[in-house]
Each structure stands twice: as structure tokens, then as C-alpha cells.
Amino acid sequence: MLLLLGLCLGLSLCVGSQEEAQSWGHSSEQDGLRVPRQVRLLQRLKTKPLMTEFSVKSTIISRYAFTTVSCRMLNRASEDQDIEFQMQIPAAAFITNFTMLIGDKVYQGEITEREKKSGDRVKEKRNKTTEENGEKGTEIFRASAVIPSKDKAAFFLSYEELLQRRLGKYEHSISVRPQQLSGRLSVDVNILESAGIASLEVLPLHNSRQRGSGRGEDDSGPPPSTVINQNETFANIIFKPTVVQQARIAQNGILGDFIIRYDVNREQSIGDIQVLNGYFVHYFAPKDLPPLPKNVVFVLDSSASMVGTKLRQTKDALFTILHDLRPQDRFSIIGFSNRIKVWKDHLISVTPDSIRDGKVYIHHMSPTGGTDINGALQRAIRLLNKYVAHSGIGDRSVSLIVFLTDGKPTVGETHTLKILNNTREAARGQVCIFTIGIGNDVDFRLLEKLSLENCGLTRRVHEEEDAGSQLIGFYDEIRTPLLSDIRIDYPPSSVVQATKTLFPNYFNGSEIIIAGKLVDRKLDHLHVEVTASNSKKFIILKTDVPVRPQKAGKDVTGSPRPGGDGEGDTNHIERLWSYLTTKELLSSWLQSDDEPEKERLRQRAQALAVSYRFLTPFTSMKLRGPVPRMDGLEEAHGMSAAMGPEPVVQSVRGAGTQPGPLLKKPYQPRIKISKTSVRGFRREEQIFSNVMKFPFASILEL
């Protein structure tokens, strides 16, 4: 009843009872009387900025997702107020557009080159940035502004990402955390997959950090009010909870992540190739292959900092993983602190007895001493190299290290570059290193570079999360290698500027993606050749794939886009190619230790990011404005999720840069923008917070 009363009071406040509340509260204070609880609630609601709308529109076309977040707020107070817009976005996403409407003024983001000379200053500020609000695998974008009394503000944020296939599913996650109950809250997702949608599910809202928020009554199946419409190639998912439904989930407005998982049909063993206006993408995810034998060494940090829950959860997870090993696999276990403790000095075959003995060894590990990361890695690599050299199974197996730590190197070799060089020289591209960092004190950037340079992956587990379940989930992604030494070739006369075509391994449930440009846009067949090794033989796949160009100028429902002529519309395959190419350049830049090479990679990544409006470590966002508000601007933002960022940019730039009408009183809004990264790579080139005054151009830097 109290909640309903509070909502009713909030509605009455919105329709004009502020003056009555002010006079009532003021007279009560003068008379020395106690202010009734309902009035105190009314006063708190009156002074807090009201979020009138929070909406997310996302369109996924062939695994490439365009997302636009819209947030509208109202300052109901009689004085100016600070208003903050906050949004968690996937760590793999690139921000492509940010626009603010303050009153009748528009402030438009523009991606430009970032000046190289500011790098040192950015790194210093990076070390002061906290990560307290980041969910796993996300980054936080914040923008705040001082809004005049009785005025409105609107924030529009657009970002793009290529969905990765893990465990046989693509996952699209949208953060629904408006920080308060919203009168109009909606999530609208369109999925268009020409290959056909094989499966689709909407998960319950997920919030790994509840921070006092409640959970819905029914935690199985889609969240309340979710509506799904689907046919063979198209799906529309709408989540539109009422205020009461929101309150049942979380009264503080932190609802959680709205997660969609789906997969597509696969017919050809050589993969699915799609073409649009001279660009192509090749999705390669073979199935029904026998698994490759694994040679795996589990390397577990047993230093003093692992005491308690972390070590117990990790041990339990390893017990489960050992039982999952196949008879053809080989394994060993290393525990490390200031000493390197090896279970066996050679790899052991998988038998009931060896699994039991391994579990006993893990059970007796006790936390003590420092952290010798270099020594542990060197010992693990020697074990694998020794086995492969003497068994003659190298081309028919995959050598892996699963490395888990919660700290930084403190014993033995502690210099990061030397550890990386030592590991790279010892592994020689023959050993893939998969790393897991636990907690806030781990050197995650070191772990990420170890995995990047040695054909692996990395994951981060926050302090309060279940390390055991995270470790099992991570291992599940790599438990079934199907191919090794994969090479995908296209005729040089037909394809240029292709992304990476060499891959060390392919794991069941994942996907290899290559994109590039076609020399001849009228090409009707594309020759593709795939070579790889599996457990039985060396395989070669050759075929001429029919090229069926997709038609631009259509939206996801098949209706013509307004003003589209085909050539000028957003080409999702071209943007996918630019996204993937930029990611690979950034990764190569991170791995390189050669300064001339790093500079060449930086320039290429920067030029591409500016051309396609990606906010990266080498680009900045300048906020241009103010410009007068145009009719149709908000509609353009609503369309941008399906069409990419271009329509919004055109609509604002077309308005010119002349200042618009004055506000109700002379006013210069103060804008503060920051972005917190929880991934190792982007931590090096961190966005910094800065207070910026308009109408001068402002800069947001990564």
C-alpha cells in the first residue's frame, strides 16, 4: 500500500501539486510541527529529477548489432539540478554516437582523431578510475549535465558490436538499469538472419550485483511483459514492463541485464557467405566432427592471497573439470606460489585412477607464499613441449594451458615484458594459454596479453562472484577442440583487405568470422578453400560458393527505408568488416613491442575508426553545439538502431552551427562525461572525466 501511495503521490506531483506541497511543508516547519511521512516522501520525489522515459532499440542483422539508448529526464525542482545518464555497454562494443538535448539546444557528438601527445596524461588518469559499478564484460558510459529549473533533457547513445558465438549460441545483452522506476520503459529488439533462426530464448533478468535490488517472483523464462514474435528469418522481442512490474523486480530501478540467446541454421560445411555492395562476410562453424585430443596443464595459483573462498571454489571447479576429460586426453596439474609444485613431471593419461589421484593432489593444496607467474608458465610449457616431442601426436592434438591467478607477479621474474617474451619464446605458437583473473588485485592486462600472444582467451571473475562456476563455464568453451591449424583462402584476384584468415584452433560451439572486400561487385561465385587438421586426418575443403547479393534499401521488416537508394544506405556487412578490422588492428597494436610497427598500426586503426565513427583508444568524441533543435530529430534517433548512426549525424549537421534561441534565462550548461572500462585493453587508454562548458567544443577521449 505504501508503494502504491508513493506512486500516486508521484503522479499528483507531476500534474501540478508542487506549489501545494511547498506551502504545506513550509508552514509546518514554521509552526514547529512534524511533517507527515507522506509529505516528506512527496518532497523527496519533488526534488529528485524524474526519468520520464528509458528505451532501448536494437537491431541485429547477420550477428551485427546496432543499439540506441534513449533517456529523457525532467527537472521538476525550482532550482538548477545535476542530472546523470548512465549506461552499461558490452566491453566489445564501439560507441558510434552520443547526442544530448538540453531544453531546446542540441549537443552532437563527432568522432575525431585523438592527439597522440595526450597519451601520457590519459594513462595517469586511467590509474585513478574505479571499476566498482561494472558488471562482468561491460563498460560504463556516464554523462551528466546541469539542467535549468523546470526544463527537460534527453540523452541518446548508440553503439555497435559483432556478436560472438559461445557454446553454440549468440548472446545479446542489454543493460536495463535506469536507477529509478520509469513511467515508460521499453526494450525493442529485432533480429534478422537470412540463414534462418534455429533457436531463440529470452533469459530471466540477470543482475550479478544486486546492490539491494529485489528479484522477480518468477526467475524462470522471460521477464514479465516480454512479447516474442518470430518466423523463419525474423524475430521481434519487446520488453515493456509497467511501473508496478518494474517495482516487483527492483524498486531502485536496477532491473538487470535483458539477455537474448539464439543460433542460426547451418547447411554448408564450408560455411555461410553473405555479400552486400562489394563487401562479404564468411561465417565458418563446422559441426559433426570428432574432437581432437587435448594436452592440458591446469596451473593454479596457491599463494597466500587465494586463502578462503577463492581457493575452495577453484578446487571444486577443477574436480568437475577433471571428470569431464576424455580418455584420449592427457593432463597434469601445477600449483604455484613462491615455489612451483608439479603433480607429475609428465602428462598423464585419463583413467579413473589418475583422476582420483589428481583430485587428491588438488585437495591438499594450501595457500602460502608469493606469486611466481613466470616460473609456473615456463614449467607448464616444458611439460607440454616434452610430451608432444616424444609422442609424435603434435599435428593431431591441441596443447592448452588453463592458468588461474588472483594477483600480480611478486616472486622470480616480475617484469611484465620479460614474462611475455619468455612465454612467447617458449610456447612458439604451439601452446595456447587461457587465463582467468580473480578479483580486483589481479594484473588483468598481463593475463590478456599472455592470451592474445598465445592463441588463447581471457576472462575476469569479480571478487564477489562464484569463481568455480566461472571457471567451469570458461572451460566448457574450450573443452572440445574440433580443428587445428585452420587456413581459409580466397583468390587474390577476387578478394582484397580480408581480415585474419589463419586460426590456431576451432572449438565446438564457437565460430570463425572473416570479412573483406570484393574486387568485382558483380561476382556470382566466390572460390573458397579451407585447410585444417582434425583428429583423424588433414582435411581440405574446396568449393565455389554462389554469391547472392543482399538488397539494401530495406529495413528489417522488408519495408523500403525512407530516402534509401541502395548505395547510400547503411551497409551492415561493410560496418562489420570495419569493426572486425579495427579490432584486429587494436589487438596487433597491443601485442607489438616494435615502436615503428605500433605507430603504423595506430595510424591505420585511427583512420579507420574516424571513417566509420568508432570511439576507440585512438579517437575522441567532440561535442558540437549548441545547435537549434530540429523537428524529427528524436524520430531519427529511434531509426538509428536499425539503420546505423548516419541518419542522426546528418540531421544534426544539416542544422548548421548557428546558436539557437536563448533559454529562459542566461545559462551555460555544464557537462561531465566519463567512461569506466573493466577490460584490460581499454584500461591502457582510459577515458577521463572532465568538466566542460558549452558552447565550446568538448572532447571525450578513450
UniProtKB/TrEMBL annotation:
Pfam families: VIT, VWA. One of its GO terms (molecular function) is serine-type endopeptidase inhibitor activity. Residues 35-161 form the VIT domain. One of its GO terms (cellular component) is extracellular region. Keywords: Glycoprotein, Protease inhibitor, Secreted, Serine protease inhibitor, Signal. Belongs to the ITIH family. PANTHER family: INTER-ALPHA-TRYPSIN INHIBITOR HEAVY CHAIN FAMILY MEMBER (PTHR10338), INTER-ALPHA-TRYPSIN INHIBITOR HEAVY CHAIN H5 (PTHR10338:SF62). This is Inter-alpha (Globulin) inhibitor H5, isoform CRA_e. It comes from Homo sapiens.
